[in-house]
Amino acid sequence: MMELLSMPFIRNIFLAGILVALGLAPWSVYVVLRRIVFSGAAVAEIASAAVALAVLFQLAPFPIALTMTVASFIGLSRLSGSARLPPETMVGMLYAGGSAASVLLIAKAPRGEADILNILFGNILTVPASMLWGLAAVFAVLSLLQFFAAKEFLISAYDPDMGKALGIRVDAWNMVFYAALGVAVAVSIRAVGALMTFTMLVAPGAAALCLTERLGRAFVVATALGVLSAIAGVFLSYQYDLPTGSTIVAVLSALFFASFVAGRLRAAA
C-alpha cells in the first residue's frame, strides 16, 4: 500500500475516491430514508444529457450539468407532496427522457462519445490535483451544512407537520436539501462518473441501516464503509488490472449484500 501511495498518479486516485466517499456517504443515509434512491439514477441521466448537449454546442459541460442536476432535484422536491402526480412518475420520466436525450445528442455529436462515456462510467483515473481541491472545498461546505441543519433535514423529511408547528419552514428546507444534494451529485459525476456516484449515494447508507438502528451511528458507519470501499476498490483495481470505478462499485455492492445478510441474521437471532 505504501508503495502505491508513493506514486502521485495513484495517490490522486485514492484521494478522489476518498473525497467522494466522504462527501456522498453521509448523504446516502438521507437518500435511503427519504426513499429517493432512484431519483439519483434519474438525475444522473439528466446530467449525462446535459453534458451531451454541451458537447454538441461546444459549451463548457460542467456548468450546464450542475444547473440541470440542481434544477432536477429541486423539481422533484416540489412534487413530493403531490397526490395527483406521484414522485415516482416524474422520476421514471426523467430517467427515460434523460437516457433518450443522451443517445440522440450523442448521435448528433459523434466526437462527443468519449466524453459521454467518461461521464457514464467514470474517469477517476484522470482526476487532476486542481479538481481534488475543488472536491474538498465543495464537500467541506456541504458537510457543514449537513451538520448544522441536521434537525431541519430530518424533521422536514419525516414529520413535516411537527416541523411547521415548531416554526420550521419545511418547504424551504426541503429545497435546500435537494439543492445541496444536486451540487454533491454534480461535482461527483464530474470527477468519477455517474455509475460510481449513484452507487456511493445509495450503498453506504443502505448498508449502514442494515447494521444499526441508531440514526447517529448510521452516518458514521456509512462514511466508514464508503471510505473503505474506495480504498479497497483502488487497491484491487491496481492489483488485478481492473477498471477502477467499476471495482469500487463492485466492492460497495459486496459490502451492501454482506451487511444485508448480517442484518437479517441479527434480526432472526
Salient structural properties:
ABC transporter involved in vitamin B12 uptake, BtuC; 269 residues; mainly alpha; 14 helices
Q: Could you give a quick summary of the protein structure above?
A:
With 269 residues, the chain is an all-alpha fold. It contains 14 helices and no strands. The protein has a single domain, classed as ABC transporter involved in vitamin B12 uptake, BtuC (Orthogonal Bundle), CATH 1.10.3470.10.
Q: Find the count of extended strands (DSSP E, 2+ residues).
A: 0
Distance between the termini: 38 Å
Q: What is the CATH architecture annotation?
A: Orthogonal Bundle
SSE ordering: HHHHHHHHHHHHHH
CATH fold field value: ABC transporter involved in vitamin B12 uptake, BtuC
Instruction: Please identify the oligomeric state.
Output: single chain
Strand-residue fraction? under 5%
What's the gyration radius in Å?
A: 19 Å
Q: Helicity level, as a percent range?
A: over 70%
CATH homology-level superfamily: ABC transporter involved in vitamin B12 uptake, BtuC
Mean pLDDT: 83
Q: Which outline best applies?
A: globular
Q: What top-tier CATH class fits best? A: Mainly Alpha
* Number of helical elements: 14
Total separate domains: 1
Which class of secondary structure composition applies to the elements? mainly alpha
Unreliable spans: none
